[in-house]
Automatic annotation (TrEMBL):
Organism classification: Bacteria, Pseudomonadati, Pseudomonadota, Gammaproteobacteria, Cellvibrionales
Enzyme Commission number(s): 3.5.1.2
Keywords noted in UniProt: Acetylation, Hydrolase, Signal
Quaternary structure and partners: Homotetramer.
Organism: Candidatus Marimicrobium litorale
Origin superkingdom: Bacteria
InterPro entries with a match to the protein in the record: Beta-lactam/transpept-like, Glutaminase
Name of this chain's protein: Glutaminase
Gene that encodes it: glsA
């Protein structure tokens, strides 16, 4: 009995040391993960659930105005989350290589912003949403900027024509190198896609010529058209697209390579255009539901960015009327909702710390 107080003191001391050690470990982990705190298991479960939930969806159909896209197996489906630290959680066909198409546009915009700064982008291209389809010529007549915004075809052809270079070859090399840097890996042009697209590009050729006519193209129209079409024909996997998005989520630094690709203070300008124009004439609906800056492509890919946190990429070839992948948008919307990633929502998950 005489030993009792001392035992109690020793016991208290040991408990105290244990609690301090445990809480500082937890705090360090939580701090490292930042205010959004999801475990790897939760993120993996989310992509698995999204894949399972929507893999049976048959709505929509492959793009066929670029003939080769109609031949891509429609059942392919991949979903991936890449965190800003570069951790990858994936489900489905995330290694399948598909044509990046319009999901390339925000990444080239990053390059153009680096070369000119955001004000000149606003002035030389424009940043207004159209509410009209991605290849609209009517929008070019209605909107004073003509090129409209960098994420529709007109603005994307214009931004490619702005990339500083002494000739077409050098321009292409810069555009392509920038895409590889965003993906943090080697990429290839899908030659068959390029052939299929460039030989049927009458609509984009008209857009390039109209821009030139209005003094809103900054290289020869055919030069811009070829470089733009090649950019759209680059093959990526869903995981590559995830890393491209994660580079934006990470403030312009690729989490895989550590390479800075754009100034941090420009990223929010780019994300704003993605939010208002990334889904073309469905951008309003997408902001209203998923609430994430995103970019879609007629190859079936979509990339969404949660600024400062992570990127979600998904791919499936069947598109709705606006040219946006049906399954990919459902999958991303599901994940956004599950974790309250919508940028307009206050965080429901507690900020640990
Ligand atoms: N290369 C395609 C085009 O110019 C890109 C369109 C898209 O993905 N929405 O039509």
């Amino acid at each position: 009995m005489a030993n009792c107080p001392e035992n109690t003191r020793l016991h208290k001391f040991i408990s105290f040391v244990f609690i301090i050690a445990l809480s500082s470990t937890l705090c360090a982990q939580a701090y490292a993960r930042g205010p959004y705190s999801y475990t790897g298991v939760e993120l993996q479960n989310a992509v698995d659930e999204a894949y399972e939930k929507f893999k049976g969806l048959k709505d929509g159909k492959n793009a066929d105005y670029i003939p080769i896209l109609a031949t891509v197996p429609s059942e392919l489906f991949g979903v991936v989350i890449v965190t800003k630290a570069g951790d990858v959680y994936s489900a489905g066909d995330t290694d399948y290589i598909f044509a990046i198409e319009s999901t390339s546009k925000p990444f080239n915009l990053a390059l153009v912003m680096e070369e000119y700064g955001p004000e000149e982008v606003q002035e030389k291209i424009g940043v207004e949403a159209t509410g009209l389809p991605f290849n609209s010529k009517l929008a070019m007549e209605l909107i004073k900027a003509r090129s409209v915004n960098p994420l529709v075809n007109a603005g994307a052809i214009a931004q490619v024509s702005m990339v500083k270079a002494k000739n077409e070859e050098e321009r292409w090399d810069k555009v392509f190198q920038n895409m590889k840097d965003f993906a943090g890996t080697e990429l290839k042009v899908m030659d068959e896609v390029y052939e299929s697209e460039i030989t049927t590009s009458w609509s984009n050729r008209a857009i390039a010529n109209l821009l030139y006519n209005y003094g809103r193209l900054y290289s020869e129209p055919e030069d811009a058209l070829r470089v733009y079409t090649k950019m759209c024909s680059v093959g990526v996997s869903t995981t590559d697209l995830g890393f491209m998005g994660a580079t934006l989520a990470n403030g312009g630094v690729n989490p895989k390579t550590g390479k800075r690709l754009m100034k941090e203070e420009y990223v929010h300008h780019l994300l704003a255009v993605m939010l208002t124009a990334g889904f073309y004439d469905e951008s309003g609906e997408w902001a209203y539901t998923a609430g994430l800056p995103s970019k879609t492509g007629v190859g079936g890919g979509i990339v969404s960015v949660v600024p400062g946190v992570l990127a979600i990429a998904a791919f499936s070839p069947r598109l709705n009327e606006a040219g946006n992948s049906v399954r990919a948008q459902e999958a991303i919307d599901y994940i956004s909702d599950k974790f309250d990633l919508n940028i307009f929502k206050p965080r429901k998950l507690p900020a640990v710390m």
